[in-house]
Design a protein that fits this description.
The chain is globular, with a radius of gyration of 19 Å. The protein has two domains: 44 residues, no CATH class; 135 residues, Nucleoside Triphosphate Pyrophosphohydrolase (Alpha-Beta Complex). It is 23% helix and 46% strand. By secondary structure, it is α+β, with helices and mostly antiparallel strands. Strands 4, 5, 6, 7, 8, 10 and 11 form a seven-stranded mixed beta sheet that branches. A hairpin with a 4-residue loop joins strand 1 and strand 2.
Length: 188
């Protein structure tokens, strides 16, 4: 798709943009916009570098992490995921690093299942989805922010029930499982 085709499909034009806030993990910008209906407005955008989410499956069991999530003020169960607060050239390297950092696992095989945008209604962050198999323990090395991570390994059936019952509510985890199911259905 060339730039003319891209701009023809746009319903919003950016008139001005300014960075409002920045820290080590994210940037926040505010854009003055013009909608195709002629109305002006403001759009806030959170920008973060690419992330990875990993679906570690071994012998019919799924590895998860439990941690306190400040934004919801609760402990949450989810697939291991994260980013390195920098632009990443090799998403698989990022996925392998997060798997080792959060769970202390190494994978003999990493299969890229796809990528998705995380909450693109207000954020610009892509997440690469990987299936990790052939797992071995290698010792974990969590970041200071991940001091409270607790690994959990559950049978696939229990993992699915946790998603259905609302124990697991992380949208990225649910999306990764959906991509895995689509991938798996095409392997037959």
């Amino acid at each position: 798709m060339d730039s003319a085709q891209k701009s023809a499909g746009r319903a919003i034009t950016t008139l001005a943009s300014r960075e409002v806030y920045r820290n080590h993990w994210m940037r926040l910008r505010e854009d003055e916009i013009l909608r195709s209906n002629g109305h002006k407005g403001i759009y806030g955008v959170v920008e973060k570098d690419d992330a990875a989410i990993i679906l570690p499956i071994d012998q019919g069991r799924v590895w998860l992490v439990e941690q306190f999530r400040y934004t919801i003020q609760e402990r949450a169960l989810e697939l291991p995921q994260g980013g390195w607060e920098m632009e990443v050239e090799n998403p698989e390297e990022l996925a392998r690093g997060e798997l080792k950092e959060e769970l202390g696992l190494e994978a003999a095989e990493m299969t890229c299942l796809g990528s998705l945008w995380i909450a693109y209604g207000y954020a610009r962050q892509r997440q690469h989805v990987f299936l990790a198999t052939g797992l071995t323990h290698a010792g974990n090395d969590p970041d200071a922010e991940e001091h409270d991570l607790a690994p959990r390994c559950v049978p696939v059936e229990e993992f699915e029930q946790m998603m259905l019952s609302g124990v697991i509510r992380d949208g990225c985890t649910l999306a990764a499982w959906g991509l895995y199911q689509l991938w798996r259905s095409r392997q037959k």
